[in-house]
Amino acid sequence: MSIDTFPYVEQAVKVVQDKIGSRPAPRLALVAGSGLGSVADRIKDPVTISYADIPGFPAPGVHGHKGNLVYGEVSGVPTIVLMGRVHVYEGEESWRLKVMIRTMRKLGCEFLFLTNAAGSMRLEVGAGELVMITDHINFMGGNPLVGPNEDKFGPRFVDLEDCWDPQLRGILKQCAAETNVPLHEAVFAGWMGPCFETPAEIRMLSMMGAQTVGMSTVPDNLVARHCGLRVLGVSVITNLACGLSPLKLSHDLTMQEAEKGAAKLIVLFERFMEKIAKL
Ligand code: HPA
Question: Which domains does the chain have, with CATH numbers?
Answer without folding.
Answer: 6-276 (3.40.50.1580)
